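Below is how a single chain appears once it has passed through the pipeline. First comes the sequence as given, then the structure the pipeline wrote out for it. We keep one example in the README because the format questions we get most often are answered faster by looking than by reading.
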Amino acid sequence: VTAKEKESVRNKLVTTAKKLAVTAKETELINKELRTLDVAKDEFVSIASHQLRTPLTALKGYAGMLLDGDAGPINDKQHEYLLEIKNSNDRMIGLITALLNVSRVDLGVFIVEPERLNLKKVAEDALKDLGVKIVGKQLQIETNFRDDVPLINADLNIVRMIFQNLLSNAVKYTPEKGRINVNLKKDGSNILISVADSGYGIPSNVQSKIFTKMFRADNARVKDPDGTGLGLYIIKSTLEKTGGKIWFESIENKGSTFYVTIPLNGMKKKEGTKRLELK
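Resulting structure:
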C-alpha cells in the first residue's frame, strides 16, 4: 500500500467520521424535539381531561337528582332514559379519570403519600363496592387474608386503585357462577396480593402486551366493549416507581391470576403536583 493510498483511506475515514458526527447531532436534536412533543401531548391530555370532567361531573349530579325525583315524579320511560344518560356519563368520567392518571404517570408528576394502611380493609372495601355485580353474576368469592400481614406505609389511592382494578377485571371477565380468590400474605420482604379467577383468560399470543397502554385482548373487547385498556398500565407504571411489582399467569378459557408485591418497609414517598385519582 502506497503512502498516497494510505492518505486516501485516511481522508475517507475522516470524512465518514464527520458525517457520522453530523448524523448523531441531527438524531439528538430530533429525539429532543420528539420528547418535547411527547411532554406537550401529555400536558394537553391532562388539561383537556380536567376541563371535560367538570361539566360531566355536573351532568352526573343533575341526572342523579332527576332519578331520585328531586324535580318531581318521572315515568318508567323517563327513568330508563335518565339511567342510560347516567351510565354513559359514568363511563366517560371513568375514561377521563384514567387519561388524567396516565398523563400524571407519564409526566412523572404524580404524588406518592404513604400512610399506615390495613390492606385487608382496603380489599374488603373494594369487594363491597362490587357487591351488586358479584351478586348479579352469582360469583363465588373466597378470601384468604393472613393474620400476620402487618399494617404498612402505602399510598391509599394507589392501593385502592390496585384492588379496584384487579377485582373489577376479575368480576367483569368471569362468567356467571364462576369463582374468584383473593389472597393476602407475607412473602419474604414483601406483602403478596393475588387475585385469581375462573374466567375467560388471556390468549397466550397477546400476554406480552397486557401491560401496554390502551391494549385490550380481543376476547376482552367482546365481553366489555367499553374498557379503556389503561388500568393495568397505570398500576404497573406506578408500582415500578414505588418499589412494587405486578405480573400474571393465565390460560385462555380457564382463568387468570394477577400478583402484586408491595415492600414490607412500605412504598417510596414521591414528591409531585397531583395525586392519582379514583373513578
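The chain has two domains: 10-107, 111-275.

See the next section for the split statistics.
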